[in-house]
Amino acid sequence: MTTWDLTEATEYIRLNSLDNEDYIDAEDERKTAILNVAHRTLQRKYSGYNIPNEAVYLFAPVLAAAFNDTNKLQQQGIASFSVRGISFTFKDWAKKDIDALIPPEVADMIGAPSGRQVKWTVL
User: Is the C-alpha dihedral spanning 13, 35, 59, 42 positive or negative?
Assistant: First the structure.
């Protein structure tokens, strides 16, 4: 298990990602869990590649946003809910597998193929 320097990770995320509020506002225990899941997911997806900390740091705020208090309900299959007159409705197509949340920039940092495939076409 990796021991994370949360000060370094938070500063990198603050300066290099735009949607970072859910990560930055999290408690240290939650930040560590997000970094662990990001690292474990990247290791599994890109087995055999070196995973730099910066790639984990860029993936972490994406996971923090995807699994924040509101959006995690969508990941759990909730279609809609209401709190004190404010309604939320999630689209069925918006639920994504965790691998689909990996930004292309992260794959580039790792040096892995971006997932694009060459396909035959008929002209």
Answer: positive
Q: Does any domain span residue 121?
A: no
Q: Are 102 and 45 in contact (CB under 8 A)?
A: yes
What is the number of domains present in the chain?
1
- pLDDT digit string (tens) for 68-77? 765 555 565 6
In tens, the pLDDT along 31-49 reads 999 999 999 999 999 999 9
Query: Domain range for residue 69?
Result: 6-110
Radius of gyration for the chain, computed over Cα atoms and rounded to the nearest angstrom? 17
Answer yes or no: are the C-beta atoms of 75 and 100 closer than 8 Å.
no
